[in-house]
Design goal:
Largest sheet: 6 strands, mixed
Structural class: alpha/beta
Order of helices and strands: EEEHEEHEHHHEHEHEEHHH
Oligomer: single chain
Strand content: 15-25%
Number of strands: 10
Low-confidence stretches: 257-263
Strand order of the largest sheet: 6-7-8-3-9-10
Number of helices: 10
Mean pLDDT: 89
């Protein structure tokens, strides 16, 4: 008789297996091995200069690893033929730190651009999708505005809408709260959770903002700049309360760990 214990474990959406990364002769991170579950909000955290953005570049197909494998649904991204790897990359959406909107285009035109480039949809269908994506991020009716005419928090939301234009399997956020006031940052965190819950999209977020980390993260990995490797993976609240690694505890408590706890 089979039991639930006999069922194979669900394959991770993304798996890093012994990945090392760098630029030229400079090592950035090494020995990275962790899983990202489908439908989770996964946070890549650590101090400045630890390689968070470099890891994201590898995950999104922009930077090949020095060694190791990046597995997407069991397929090794960097061992795929070029055409297949490009198709995998189009299943990603990226919201860049600055929003990276084209200033000469309206908000609607910014969202339409990837649809015009990578689909054969009719113009009226593309416009309808752009309007829908703006509505998803709470900006219905703003399609004719230019980026300079809206606030920084709104530009971040438009960046999310554009990242969702092609209905990606995975959304990547590079320091989404950077430059925002606390209220706007909290609203953006709420938006990430709303989209995760309504769309079931896997979210990978780079951030060092503790409020965001504890609000949105299901799971996380901590990267260390000094040792150039990961020191811990798991739910941030559990790592804060139970990790035996001093650097991890110090980061997640902003250095408020006692000398005895850090010993």
């Amino acid at each position: 008789m089979s039991t639930t214990d006999d069922k194979p474990a669900e394959q991770p959406h993304i798996r890093l297996d012994g990945v090392s990364l760098g630029y030229g002769d400079t090592l950035v991170q090494q020995g990275l091995s962790f899983d990202i579950r489908r439908g989770d909000v996964f946070v890549i955290m650590g101090g400045s200069g630890c390689g968070k953005s470099t890891v994201m570049r590898c995950l999104t197909g922009l930077l090949p690893p020095w060694s190791g494998r990046v597995l997407l649904g069991g397929e090794s991204l960097w061992e795929l033929p070029s055409a297949q790897r490009s198709a995998c990359m189009r299943r990603n959406g990226v919201m860049y730190q600055s929003g990276a909107l084209w200033s000469s285009m309206t908000l609607e035109e910014n969202i339409c651009l990837p649809l015009e480039q990578y689909t054969r949809l009719a113009p009226e269908q593309i416009r309808a999708i752009a309007e829908y994506k703006l509505a998803l991020v709470g900006l219905a009716g703003y399609g004719d505005y230019y980026p300079s005419e809206i606030s920084g928090g709104m530009r971040k939301r438009v960046g999310v809408a554009r990242a969702m234009a092609l209905d990606p399997d995975t959304l990547y956020f590079d320091e989404p709260s950077a430059g925002l006031d606390p209220l706007s940052a909290r609203r953006l965190d709420e938006l990430i959770l709303e989209l995760r819950d309504s769309l079931g999209t896997t979210m990978v977020v780079i951030t060092h903002e503790l409020d965001s980390i504890f609000t949105i993260a299901d799971d996380a990995v901590f990267l260390d700049a000094e040792t150039k490797t990961m020191l811990a993976t798991g739910n941030p609240r559990e790592l804060r309360d139970h990790s035996s690694v001093p650097q991890v505890r110090a980061f997640l408590t902003r250095g408020e760990v006692s000398a005895d706890a850090a010993a």
